[in-house]
Amino acid sequence: MSHLLMRTGGAHFDEVAGLIERLDAEGIEHYQTDSGFWRLGVDALWVRNRDDAERAKQVLQEYQAQYQQEAQAQHHALHARGEAPSFIGQLWRHPIKMLLALAAVAAILAISLVPFMRGL
After folding, report:
1. Longest dimension (CA), the chain
2. How far apart are alpha carbons 20 and 105 in whole angstroms?
3. Which of 56, 82, 97, 115 has the most CB atoms less than 10 A away?
């Protein structure tokens, strides 16, 4: 019977692809499901045999620790080069988009707070 290893809905494509490669290298039978057109299913990675579930969980934990270290190293490298995403950087690259987003936030705040400020 199949065993759920990981929900992949919020995972980055590279992370899922790397985990699939690692499971293939370990000889663990698995398959991937998607939620379908109507989003009624589940995006997940499954292990076919329940006997392999514990070994697959261990492979998952090891891979996620490695992936986290690599992602953090990449983020630190971007910061060191001054290329990390920031609010000021986004404002500089996409000024109209950012100003429209700020205007939308201000409008929502105004609509939310006006009823409470009428009594003041």
Report:
1. 69
2. 40
3. 56
